[in-house]
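Q: Could you write out the predicted structure for this multi-component system? I'm mainly interested in how the pieces pack against one another.
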Amino acid sequence: MLQPPLDAARFWRLSLAGAASFLGVWTLAAMSGITSRDFLPAPWDVVARFGQLMVEPFAGYVLHQHLASSLQRFAMGFVLAVCVGIPLGLLMAWFGWVDRLVSPLFETVRFIAPIAWVPFAALWFGIGIGGPVLIIFMGAFPPVLINTYRGAKQVDRKYIEASQMLGASSWRAMTEVLLPAAVPSIVAGLRISAGLGWQSLVGAELIVASSGVGYLMVKGQAAVSTATVMSGMVAIGVVGLLIDIALRRAQFAIERRRGL
Amino acid sequence: MANIVFQNVQRVFTQNGQSFVALKDIHLEVNDREFVAIVGPSGCGKTTCMRMAAGLEHPTGGQVSVDGEVVTQPGPDRAVVFQAFALFPWKSVWDNIEFGLHSLGVAAGERKRRIEHYIALMGLGGYERAFPHQLSGGMQQRVAIARAYVLDPKVLLMDEPFGALDAQTRVVMQEELVRLARQHPRTVLFITHAVEEAVYLADRIVVMSARPGTVREIIDVKSIRESEDWDQHKRIEDVMDLPSFVHLRTHVWKLLRDQQGSLAH
């Protein structure tokens, strides 16, 4: 920001004004009769439908059950991305030959959008859980690897020299020097990674047969119920925001502990 | 015999296709348990000498050996105290000091004994669980010194260790280092640009010329220190008042000032 930050009261007034304007325009558009209420529901229609989905099953389950299902797949894909990405990033940063081996392949593959993996996943996994997990992994993996690698590569030379002088093996150098030094970068990468992984969710659930928020939205589309689809979008947005807030808190806590 | 020998050491740097000579014809021996200071103008290559003894850099000609073995890479037998401290910010004081002991395979009981000894000696009591960023510069450097000493290294290499400290802390640290050095004599190679510091701490002083760095003169301080009994004075300002100290300091200053030839004294 080039201008000084706003005080809390002004911040909240402006945010509410923004939200209110958006809702106002939406309501006008919905009420104007330009298109049927099925295609463009009013804000309260969506709220009502959202509430309904929480108690009445649709496409097999109630909303929070679909959410749980989605979160489970997300967690698996995300954890897998972290478990592969962090060690690999450290190895690539420390051993030049690992870097040369992996980089060309990684740089090519990373530009294939997660969605583009859907047909491949469908062929390989059918409707099994492997499919969505693969898609989410493809979204979450690149930021984790890149941020770990960069964080480790940018470790101040003096720490590397100190660790060499102190006789640290490659293993200790990677786990006790590179990894802790790269934590701020890694955590920032985790936030991006979680966001991308969560966003890849809908694409992932296109090939899942029986549950999940993305599945709910696809079923809502088939039933021509925009309110259902938008309820799904709201759920995705809110949960995505909560995940980001949680990781942001973790990031600040870590930075404070380090005295940054 | 934990000595450091520089044999005909040369160091040429190449940058953008241009090469320049940083160090030329360095012959130097630091004897067992001797405290040798290298002083010289900025850019004379004195830090490079230390880094070659540490194994962090390599000579382009000649060789550096410690205890008869040619130095090829860094290791805990040649402990370094860096100007920028280089303590790991994510580790506590205790863990920082302990780090090198794991590499040496020292058993847990012995590790504890050694660390406690140096924490007491360096006045770090109560700060074992603190993190570097919570400590002042002087305290951090005390931790770095403890980290080096605790390894029981063959030689100690100190690269302007007090350069980043304020003037008053610096003086306190010099007094402490003298105390430590007299109590636990070790082979030390100490790099500084502060003449008074070198005269106060060292047994011998190596005066280097400006780039390309060569050895101008080697001055024996220990014999003067012992014959004039500097050690009876506990405070640094009392030592620095002595005529023999002043004379020696001035001599070194003149050597540094004089850019060509040697000054008749």
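A: Regarding packing and overall arrangement: Chain A has one domain: 44-258.
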